[in-house]
Write a structure and sequence with these properties.
The complex is a heterodimer of chains A (about 200) and B (about 280). Chain A is mainly alpha-helical and about 200 residues long. In chain A, about 75% of the residues lie in helices and about 0% in strands. Chain A folds into two domains: about 1-85, no CATH class; about 125-205, no CATH class. Chain A is built from six helices and no strands. The chains are: A mainly alpha (about 200), B alpha/beta (about 280).
Chain lengths: ~200, ~280
């Protein structure tokens, strides 16, 4: 029963979501299922917070390696929670100030560091070692210059545009079609109970 | 001149030199407003602009979904500011939501939307409203297709949906002329796949430059009607508005960085080919 009931729920839910598209009378039930999905997803965030507290709280209490970083995570989370619950979250609140002054620049900085790594990696690795690598390199240079709308007399922006609209589009579309077919077949296997890995290994 | 030594040392160039040059290339154009940057408006940005331009003033609201986190703000926030300026300058009402999973898009909305609205003297809940964020994008998109209240019963500031004048008569996508999703993830694609195909919603997408190549097939097929791609797209939109902003300023930096990287790549390859030829000889 531990196996059959989840499989049955999955099959009914999967078939319903596919069939409701063609049955207008199923709309109220479809809306109800959407509400359930939102509630279930909200719980996953609670689970995520609980997991962070459990992992880093435990490390902090036992003074394990790097416990200082764990204490910062717990402190930051509690600070944002308290700031949001007590002072609200609109413009001018402590919550928004913390977001603007800490979270926003920190995340932007982390992402901006990529520019340095990319430049260094491009200098060291972007080499004309083979025909494939040379083609990639030439295409990259054309697109980089083309994106700046320079050298119009040499048709560089037009060539860059062709690379994006031609070879890029064709390959992306082929990948998308492959992914779409793969997703459809996997969904069918899950609904029919052939693919059961989402149920776990079955071991306690 | 000893080219062997020169190219050998070039191949062993300290990465701190590369980092320093990139740092200079990024920061200086912000302060000295150089080099000049003349952007050509692409058809994707033009169609985005035209669709927003065609929305009747003081009518049904343009939906803007802030689906990015602060990591992508440098590229996408200039687009958000430009789109808001476009809408508010034409008295187009704006309904803002965020489907960024961790809720950080809500922080960006609270930072930017009220500030731009204030530039044009627009009133909250009358000319614009921010409904908040939903952590499950696809479910929220589908729920909004039937009844927006089910996804957002209250706005971000805890006002009930029914008490927001802007939303009077707005039940689902039928009353939304277009959605502009600003995304750095597959959420942009989901807008085309779900509300676009099932409910016929006009989808416009502002995307990070790396993600544009992924979404291009949806533009070609007509499932996405307009794309603002990367910082350049933001600069193009600012050109159409005739109001340069962070997108145009950022493109000056991007221009210098692109050329710096190209110089690095070319020099690296010259050194590589020279030393390889020597080794073979």
């Amino acid at each position: 029963m531990k196996l059959q009931i989840p499989l049955l729920i999955c099959a009914i839910a999967g078939i319903f979501m596919a069939v409701q598209y063609f049955i207008p009378a199923a709309l109220p039930l479809y809306e109800r299922v959407n509400d359930y999905l939102q509630i279930v997803f909200a719980f996953s965030i609670v689970l995520g917070v609980a997991s962070v507290v459990h992992r880093h709280g435990g490390r902090l209490v036992r003074r394990k390696k790097d416990w200082v970083y764990s204490s910062l995570i717990i402190f930051g989370m509690l600070l944002m929670l308290l700031a949001g619950f007590i002072g609200g979250r609109g413009p001018g609140t402590l919550f928004q100030h913390l977001f603007n002054a800490v979270l926003l620049p920190v995340q932007a900085t982390m992402f901006a560091l990529l520019a340095f790594y990319m430049a260094s990696a491009a200098f060291r690795s972007f080499r004309t070692r083979s025909l494939d690598a040379t083609l990639l390199l030439v295409a990259a240079v054309f697109v980089m210059v083309g994106r700046l709308d320079d050298f119009k007399s040499l048709y560089i922006p037009d060539i860059a545009r062709w690379i994006l609209d031609g070879p890029n589009l064709v390959s992306k579309r082929a990948i998308l079609l492959g992914v779409g077919l793969g997703m459809a077949s996997t969904a069918l296997k899950v609904v029919l109970g052939i693919e059961r890995s989402y149920l776990g290994s079955g071991k306690e | 001149m000893d080219f062997d030594r020169l190219f050998q040392s070039m191949l062993r160039l300290d990465r701190r030199i590369v980092y320093s040059l990139i740092f200079i290339a990024v920061t200086f154009p912000f302060y000295i407003a150089w080099p000049p940057f003349n952007v050509e408006v692409s058809k994707e940005v033009r169609s985005t602009y035209d669709i927003i331009e065609a929305i009747p003033p003081n009518g049904q609201p343009l939906l803007i979904s802030i689906d990015y986190d602060p990591a992508s703000a440098a590229e996408l926030s200039p687009m958000l500011v430009a789109a808001l300026r476009h809408a508010f300058s034409r008295d187009i009402r704006v309904l803002v939501i965020s489907l960024q999973t961790t809720g950080q898009g809500a922080g960006i909305a609270t930072q930017i939307v009220p500030a731009v609205a204030a530039e044009y003297g627009k009133k909250q809940n009358v000319d614009w409203a921010f409904l908040g964020f939903q952590p499950n994008p696809i479910v929220a998109m589908m729920a909004m297709g039937e009844d927006m209240r089910r996804a957002f019963p209250r706005d971000y500031f805890d006002t009930r949906y029914e008490e927001i004048p802007l939303l009077a008569g707005v039940q689902n996508y039928s009353q939304i002329p277009a959605v502009l999703t600003l995304a750095s993830t597959a959420v942009g694609e989901s807008w085309a796949i779900y509300p676009g195909s099932r409910y016929g919603l006009t989808v416009l997408a502002g995307l990070t430059a790396v993600y544009v190549a992924d979404i291009q097939p949806f533009y070609q097929s007509g499932q996405i009607r307009g794309i603002i791609g990367g910082l350049k797209g933001a600069a193009e939109y600012e050109k159409l508005l005739e109001r340069p902003g962070d997108g145009t300023a950022g493109m000056r930096s991007q221009k210098v960085v692109h050329y710096t990287m190209i110089i690095f790549i070319v020099l690296g390859n010259i050194a590589y080919l020279w030393t390889r030829r020597r080794r073979i000889a």
